[in-house]
Amino acid sequence: IADKDSHIAAAGNGKRDLLNKPVSKSVEEVLENRQIVSFTALDKGYIPLTEGENQPYGAVVICPVISEGDIIGSVIIANKDQKEPMGEVEKKLAMAAAGFLGRQIEQ
């Protein structure tokens, strides 16, 4: 989970790689465009999650969190395994989590 500036929550084996690190300019651009993106490390349009990312993630889904019409952050699902790209299930999961967080902030 990231706000507009940094990754504020992370879980799993690679959480130290993300937690409290600033989000990259590319992620900020995706959020400004209100896009839900999914890509792998092998794609031309790979987006690093942090500035100065050392090792690319194998597969990533980024979904903006919107509250009262404003973008307040993002839900990011990332996997280091390059053999398994993110599918429709991961996109829907990110969208559900982002929707939930956006509604909770509104209350």
Structure, explained:
With about 110 residues, the chain is of the alpha+beta class. It has a single domain, classed as Beta-Lactamase (2-Layer Sandwich). The model has no long low-confidence stretch (mean pLDDT about 90). It is globular. The protein has 3 helices and 4 strands. A 4-stranded antiparallel β-sheet has the order 1-4-3-2, with helices on both faces.
List the helices and strands and how they pair.
Blueprint: E1 2-3, H1 15-18, H2 25-32, E2 37-40, E3 59-67, E4 70-79, H3 88-106
Antiparallel strand pairs: 1-4, 2-3, 3-4
Briefly characterize the structure.
By secondary structure, the chain is an alpha+beta fold. It is 29% helix and 23% strand.
Helical content (DSSP H or I, runs of 4+) = 25-40%
Number of strands: 4
CATH architecture label: 2-Layer Sandwich
- Structural classification: alpha+beta
- CATH topology type: Beta-Lactamase
The topology string of helices and strands comes to EHHEEEH
Any low-confidence stretches, pLDDT <50, length ≥5? Answer: none
Largest sheet: 4 strands, antiparallel
Give Rg in angstroms: 13 Å
Strand order of the largest sheet: 1-4-3-2
Percent range for β-strand residues: 15-25%
Number of separate helices: 3
Number of self-contained structural domains: 1
- Classify the oligomer: single chain
Chain-averaged pLDDT: 91
Could you give me the name of the CATH homologous superfamily?
GAF domain
Q: Output the CATH class name.
A: Alpha Beta
Structural shape:
globular
The end-to-end span amounts to 19 Å
